[in-house]
Amino acid sequence: MPELRQLQIxxxxxxxxxxxxxxxxxHLGQQAVSKAVHQLERELGVTLLxxxxxxxxxxxxxxxxxxxxRQALAAVDAAFDRARQVGLGLAGTVTIGVTPxxxxxxxxxxxxxxxxxxxxxxxxxxxxxxxxxxxxxxxRAVDLVLARIGVDGVASATLSSTPAVxxxxxxxxxxxxxSVPASRLDxxxxxxxxxxxxxxxxxxxxxxxxxxxxxxxxQSRVTGAVLASELTDVDxxxxxxxxxxxxxxxxxxxxxDRLTFPLLMLWHPDATxxxxxxxxxxxxxxxxxxxxxxxxxxxxx
Length: 301
Hints:
Blueprint: H1 4-16, H2 19-26, H3 30-44, E1 49-51, E2 56-58, H4 60-87, E3 91-98, H5 104-115, E4 120-127, H6 133-138, E5 144-147, E6 155-169, E7 189-192, H7 199-210, E8 216-219, H8 228-233, E9 237-241, E10 250-254, E11 260-267, H9 274-285, H10 291-294, E12 297-300
Parallel strand pairs: 3-4, 3-5, 7-8, 7-9
Antiparallel strand pairs: 1-2, 5-11, 6-9, 6-10, 6-11, 6-12
Helix pairs in contact: 1-2, 1-3, 1-4, 2-3
């Protein structure tokens, strides 16, 4: 059966109509080029080139192979290029799982990093519950997950943390404050995305306790949103990552203490993750003063 290399060599000869020039173009010896064309003709059982001491001419079969071969070689080159682009994370589709506590601004920041210089890459966002992360990654339903807390058996990298802001209904006594110390939350009920006793909720409790605020967690009934009506119904406040879009009836009040939300990227340890490598490479290029504002990897979890 004819080989791709034989077609490539024939295509060069067919364009040059000269074995010497074709050999120079292919960086091969003239004898190797002539041998490859002879082998191709023998495989096909037809004459492709008429050779004289003065010129090389295409036969009708040779002209047909030249024309169709151009399209075939272009298709092969395109297939190789697409495989290379997908393998480098520059094309294809990457599905990112996003847990409820991830702010849209954080998600968008990671998407911008992945799309930088990769216009052929399609990014799909999928909402995911923290308890489903391991199964979703194992089933390859998602390629990456943005979360607040790591998961056993899952590879992770820590991204730059995100400052927290206080979220209260507009009628709350703290709603008009320019800023408040986190200690003002002492004794209040805190609306959380996960129930008490889960890792992220316990992390929030611990960080608030460290600045003198003992809170009582109350799990939200709405996934991925904080509603003024829910805060009022349960008489609670909430903490949101900076970059969360404003909502009707809710005031976002800066905290005087630097409370931050951890941001992690998770992936299956056995999966090929070119997107992880691209984010790591981006972090190395942008390492320095702007790392905290670009959401890049800060270390290994």
